[in-house]
Write a structure and sequence with these properties.
single chain, 4-stranded antiparallel sheet, 8 strands, 34% helix, globular
Length: 154
C-alpha cells in the first residue's frame, strides 16, 4: 500500500528540511527476509526506503504475525523512534532486497530539539504517517479477522 503524497519524504518536507535530515543519513542494505525490527524492541533508528519493499506486521496471539502494510520507495520505515518510550509498535521484514537511508534516532531528535521549526515539520510528517498506518492496520486486521465486509473505509 503506497502512502498518500503528504507522507512521502519529497512532498512532506521542504527542500531545506529534507537536506538537513539527509545530512544525518547513511546508506544500508538488507537481504530479502531480513528482520529490521521486532514489535516491543528498542526503536533507536529509522529508515527511508530507496529501493525494495518492507512488510509491516503485528503479532496476533495464537496466529502468525499479520502483515498490515507494505512500504516502498521514499517511504518512512519506523516512527516509534520519535515518541517515548521509543519502543517498536510493529515488526518489519524485507520482502525484497532493500536499500535504504538509515538514521540514528538520537541524532535526529537532537536536531529537532536544536531547531524547533525543523522539529515541528518532522513531527507533523511522522504524525501523518502514524495516522495513515493506524488506518491501514485497522482495515487490514478487519479484513483478516472481522466479519465479511467490515474492513472497508469509513
Amino acid at each position: 500500500m503506497n502512502a498518500p503524497a503528504t507522507t512521502s519524504l519529497p512532498r512532506a518536507l521542504s527542500a531545506e528540511h529534507r537536506q538537513r535530515l539527509m545530512r544525518l543519513a547513511h546508506e544500508v542494505s538488507y537481504a530479502q527476509g531480513a528482520r529490521l525490527f521486532e514489535e516491543g524492541g528498542h526503536a533507536d533508528r529509522f529508515w527511508i526506503i530507496r529501493t525494495g519493499t518492507v512488510d509491516l506486521d503485528i503479532r496476533v496471539p495464537g496466529r502468525r504475525a499479520a502483515v498490515i502494510d507494505s512500504l516502498g520507495h521514499n517511504e518512512l520505515l519506523g516512527w516509534s523512534w520519535l515518541f517515548p518510550p521509543h519502543t517498536w509498535h510493529l515488526g518489519a521484514e524485507a520482502v525484497t532486497p532493500l536499500r535504504a537511508y538509515e538514521f540514528d534516532a538520537a541524532q535526529v531528535r537532537a536536531a529537532c530539539h536544536d531547531d524547533p521549526e525543523f522539529g515541528r515539520t518532522v513531527a507533523e510528517w511522522v504524525g501523518q504517517i502514524v495516522a495513515h498506518r493506524l488506518r491501514a492496520a485497522r482495515t487490514r486486521l478487519l479484513d483478516l479477522y472481522g466479519p465479511y465486509g467490515s474492513g472497508g473505509a469509513r
